[in-house]
Amino acid sequence: MDYKKLAADIVENVGGPENIEIVSHCMTRLRFNLKDVSKTNKETLENLNGVLGVVYAGGQYMVILGQNLIPVYERVIKDFNLEAGEISNENLDDIKEKQPLTLKNIGNTILGYVSASVTPLIPGLIAGGMLKVILLLIVTFIDLDFANSSTYLLLSAIGDAPFYFMPIIVAYGAATKLGGTPVYAMVATAALLHTNFISLVSSGNPFTLFGISVRSLSYSSTLLPALLIALVAYYAEKFFNKIVPGIFRSVFVGMGTIFVAGSLGYLILGPIGNMLGEGIAAIFMFLSSTVGPVAVGLLAALLPWLVMTGMHTALAPFMTQLLSDPGYDAMIRPAFLLHNMAEGGAVLGVAARSKDAQYRSECISIAVGCIVAGVTEPAIYGVNLKHRKPMYGVMIGGFAGGFVASLLGAKAYVMGYSNIIALPIFQDTVIAMIIGVITAIVVAAVITFVLGIQETNTDNTLTTPVQKTYQDSDIIAIADGKMIELDDVNDETFSSKALGDGVAFELNSDFITAPANGKLTAMFPTGHAFGITTNEGVELLVHIGIDTVNLKGEYFDVLAKQGDTVRAGAPIVKIDREAIIAKGYDLTTMLIVTNTNNKDLTFDHYGIIKQGTIIRKGEN
């Protein structure tokens, strides 16, 4: 199978990379969120060698690939420079159905614009901030006179550059988000940092543009003026493209755009952005001076849920604004860092409570990743959320650490990662932050240890013992409920038997068990699907519910792991049926034979059935 060609053909027939907003995958399907579904070619896609089917549901365009999924997904990401699960650059002019701006969505629209505009800036701020941290450590602990050297001054300029030229980088991100020409927004914004303007401001004398007074303000390290200038530049460019004849556009559109956006930047947009920035800073200063410790603690406690929903990204713009004015962040960065510490602490609590030596070792490794590297996804999804109770430890530990650190005056002065390596960004308040870190880790670990965990089987030989022994040729009912024909499933992917023949179950129990003796060859992290290769070489896929991948593992407890040898009837996944149904999901669960291995497979016992009932007696 030529995965590179298949990936290219799929991308081409979903409208090309420019039509893709989000690309992700579940156990069997490549999932696309597209800008314009009408640009797809369903018939061509279905005829591609390796594609088992195509489904459009729930706002997602799904290409069913089965065993070809992962290599094709990796080629799509690599060959077309797409970020997994993240929104690609979006040209608003290409969207056929724009959402009208209403009171309900205006907040999300503004936050989406600001977040997308700031995203390209964040790595630069972190890089510059960490370089400044290194220089600070050298001057403080190694060579005090180094601060007077030309080497220090030049390296410091490199570290300061992302902050000083922040408006230009933000203008690039904003123009890219809007679909305008980035260089026009960047040039108009750069005018605020030009030496002519800075000289006029530094002189202290009043000055004008077209006879209109210009406010003497400094715009280095600012965020909001650039957002406003980029917005005006976008609409100015559209306007000039409409009125300027085609032959003159290359000359006059750009000139007109930077003239309008740059002039308004001096007269209106810069001052308005500065005023809004001061207002935001005032709000955070008020919170810090009144309920600061409580606010930081609550934010740290809520962050695990914000991270899981992606809402934490909306806070990034405020972080950069605070570093500009008042020059430090006493709330957001401390909360982010302490949340990571609490995640790591909770995982340490799980490790201390677990009786499985191998699992304990894995937990310690994950905890170190949280604390030292600031990587929390394995902790959130792989440990704490799975066991549920540790999430209380995370929240309580985060709150305690945030409260203590803020009470002692912790403040981040430059951008950095949310891990202990970045502690020097807190400069003279680093001791306060260290105490907060210790508090978050210890409290989260102790609370988790006291509350306990629900042990999951991590034995590499057999999952939970079963009472009955089955032949290797047997396939059994995986749950109590009603067994139905695959044709009756309310999902074209399964009812069309694109993945293979099989049966389905309308569940009446919370445990989903192994359908046969064999090896657990696939276990999706979210728990909504798993695959078993029987001892006879038959490949079986169990898919719990329809579109339940969107729950991201919530309400699913995985009781075994990929690579385990399992016996028919051993519990593999425990679900919370009531909660999943309350969320509006169809819990019909499919048992599909994806590879018969030349065996003759016939199912019987349709209707009401008990878990463990033999539904296929195979060749002996």
Q: Which helices and strands appear, and what pairs or packs with what?
A:
Elements: H1 3-13, E1 20-25, E2 29-34, H2 42-46, E3 53-57, E4 60-64, H3 69-79, H4 106-118, H5 121-142, H6 150-164, H7 166-178, H8 182-190, H9 195-203, E5 207-209, E6 212-214, H10 224-243, H11 249-290, H12 292-309, H13 316-324, H14 332-353, H15 357-373, H16 377-387, H17 389-407, H18 430-451, E7 475-476, E8 481-485, H19 492-495, E9 502-507, E10 511-513, E11 518-523, E12 529-534, E13 539-544, E14 556-558, E15 565-566, E16 571-575, H20 577-582, E17 589-595, E18 607-609, E19 614-616
Helix pairs in contact: 1-3, 4-7, 5-6, 7-8, 7-10, 8-10, 8-11, 10-11, 12-14, 12-17, 14-15, 14-16, 14-17, 14-18, 16-17, 17-18
Description:
This protein is an alpha+beta fold. The protein folds into four domains: 3-88, Gyrase A, domain 2 (2-Layer Sandwich), CATH 3.30.1360; 115-287, no CATH class; 291-451; 475-616, Glucose Permease (Domain IIA) (Distorted Sandwich). Helices cover 48% and strands 14% of the residues. It has helices at 3-13, 42-46, 69-79, 106-118, 121-142, 150-164, 166-178, 182-190, 195-203, 224-243, 249-290, 292-309, 316-324, 332-353, 357-373, 377-387, 389-407, 430-451, 492-495, 577-582, and strands at residues 20-25, 29-34, 53-57, 60-64, 207-209, 212-214, 475-476, 481-485, 502-507, 511-513, 518-523, 529-534, 539-544, 556-558, 565-566, 571-575, 589-595, 607-609, 614-616. The strands form five sheets. It has an eight-stranded antiparallel sheet, with no helix packed on it. A four-stranded antiparallel sheet has the order 1-2-4-3. A three-stranded antiparallel sheet has the order 10-16-14, with no helix packed on it. Helix 8 packs across helix 11 (249-290). The model is unreliable at 86-98 and 456-467 (pLDDT under 50).
